[in-house]
Amino acid sequence: MTGDNATSSVLWVILLAMCCFIGACSMSVDSGAAAALFDRQKLGDASALTELESDAGKGAGPASFFAGLAYQLGPISDPGRRNKLKAKSYYEQAKLPAAAHNLALILLDEGKGEAAVKVLLEYADSYPQSLMLLGRIYLHGLEGVPKNYPLAYQYFDKVVRFNKDPQAEYECAVLLYTGRGIEKDTVKAVRYWESSAKFGNVDSKKALYNISTGPERLVWMAIVINAQPNLKDALESKEDFRLYTNAELRMIQQRAAIWIDAHPTRNAEMKYMMPAMKI
Q1: DSSP letter string, 38-101
Q2: Per-residue pLDDT tens for 40-78?
Q3: What is the SS3 string spanning 134-170?
Q4: What Å distances lie between residue 158 and 21, 49, 61, 132, 277, CA to CA?
Q5: Cβ(61)–Cβ(91) under 8 Å?
Q6: 182 touches 222 (CB < 8 A)
Q7: Which of 131, 220, 222, 265 could form a disulfide with 209 if both were Cys (CB 3.0 to 4.6 A apart)?
């Protein structure tokens, strides 16, 4: 990846990994102290970074993780102090799932897909973010890492079993519905999409809209519309919506509500997925 947008995306994922790590280590005094030092150096306190590196030199895993993060992100006042080489060194030293995940992200940013996969595999089974990343790598392929749909499904499925992540359910459903990498099973695919949609996944809602016919299509159209912040976004998100006026879209929602009430077996789940009218 190149450019400011790619760098920004990587940094956000790293920050997410940091939050997950702090949560997992919330009972650890070492991680709390390391996080405090990280926050201080982020605001430009050079002595905090020195202390963090000193603790990392004593073999403290959390200190090594946050030292790596400090060099990966740099202080707010001086992002030019980022140092990927030092960041990678500290992440390798930390020997923690979140550190391995962040190290893999740096390697991916450098175009080293094979090396990133090797690092991710070390802790992936205990770290769903790494399983998800492996699934995406094999789904789309990278230089040195060709597409592998069976492996992509395997990793997405592990995430679903781990924590029922809505995006992982969506990815599993796509592969099941198309029969890529696994035996085609449209019933199971729809079940995954519906489960994912219940937790607000817009991709799954759109998928269910796309495969629906008749009155049920109106229901999913209404659900997709309601998933957008406003009607303008809804209209721009789907070609079909541009064929309708605002009044017709409101009518679609009203008909959808009638359809829901007339089908008690799907009543609860549809109402759960369709929030208050926004148009």
Answers
A1: HHHHHTT-HHHHHHHHHHHHTT-HHHHHHHHHHHHH--TT-GGG--HHHHHHHHHHH--HHHHH
A2: 988 888 899 899 999 998 888 899 999 999 999 888 777
A3: HHHHHHHCECCECCCHHHHHHHHHHHHHHHCCHHHHH
A4: 20, 37, 26, 9, 36
A5: no
A6: no
A7: 220
CA distance 99 to 92: 7
Segments in 200-245 forming alpha helices (H): 202-211, 214-226, 231-237
Model pTM greater than 0.85? no
Report phi then psi at 145, rounded to 5: -130, 95
pLDDT at 265 over 70: no
Q: Chain-centre distance of CA 9, in angstroms?
A: 11
8 Å CB contact between 89 and 69: no
229's enclosing H/E stretch is none
Residue 140 contacts residue 147 (beta carbons within 8 Å): yes
Largest interatomic CA distance in the chain: 68
Q: What are the DSSP calls for 103-142, one per residue?
A: HHHHHHHTT-HHHHHHHHHHHGGG-HHHHHHHHHHHHH-B
Structure tokens at 279: 């148009």
Interacting residues of 80 by C-beta distance below 8 A, sequence separation 6+ = 74
75: Cα separation from own chain's centroid: 26
Q: What is the pLDDT of residues 82-107, one digit of tens each?
A: 899 999 999 999 999 999 999 999 99
